[in-house]
Design goal:
By secondary structure, this protein is α+β, with helices and mostly antiparallel strands. It has helices spanning 13-42, 44-70, 77-85, 114-121, 130-144, and strands at 96-99, 105-110, 148-154, 166-172. Helix 1 runs antiparallel to helix 2 and helix 2 runs parallel beside helix 5. The termini are far apart.
């Protein structure tokens, strides 16, 4: 059967959105396979260290590209961060919640996580992603606005509620 479209630009909106989700799933699958190979060869500690180092660079690149694409100026505070978080690669495949409980504070909660959900299906323990998340979310927020302080409320290996995997608090400091 011949392909219906020759390029993504020819796709109607619904198919283009599905294509974006597929790209995000493929990216995440590659990230997971890479991690598993490092873990198999050199152990969990080395894999987390390499993953943390890679995310420290990638998350800054991702934030800058989102800012450029959407015209977000550096120093845009929590409003800019809220928009940028909605455009991260995995925002298309994980369910997340963003709240503004008080002035100067943004809470970001990952309600579903394809990585953790896959581990659960395979009857594996939660992936201890907190060391990576501290770098990932901290660098992402700081790229948007250096005044944003990032703190982890919970993230595996921490205990977490059944309906959420991790939660991050971003505070705008003056």
């Amino acid at each position: 059967m011949a392909a219906r479209y020759r390029t993504p630009q020819e796709m109607p909106k619904e198919q283009l959105l599905a294509y974006i989700a597929d790209i995000a799933k493929n990216w995440l699958a590659h990230d997971g396979l890479w991690f598993l190979e490092v873990e198999k060869r050199w152990g969990m500690e080395a894999a987390i260290e390499a993953d943390r180092d890679a995310w420290s660079v990638f998350t800054t690149i991702e934030a800058r590209r989102i800012m450029e694409r959407l015209g977000i100026e550096e120093g845009g505070g929590l409003d800019a961060l809220e928009v940028a978080l909605r455009f991260r690669m995995y925002a298309h495949i994980n369910r997340q919640k963003i709240e503004r409980p008080e002035r100067g504070v943004l809470l970001f909660t990952m309600r579903t996580c394809r990585v953790q959900d896959a581990r659960r299906r395979k009857k594996l323990p939660d992936f201890p992603c907190k060391p990576v998340g501290l770098v990932e979310y901290g660098n992402f927020a700081a790229t948007i606005d250096r005044r944003i302080k990032t703190e982890c409320i919970f993230c595996p290996p921490d205990e977490h509620p059944a309906d959420a995997w991790c939660c991050w608090r971003f505070t705008l400091t003056e």
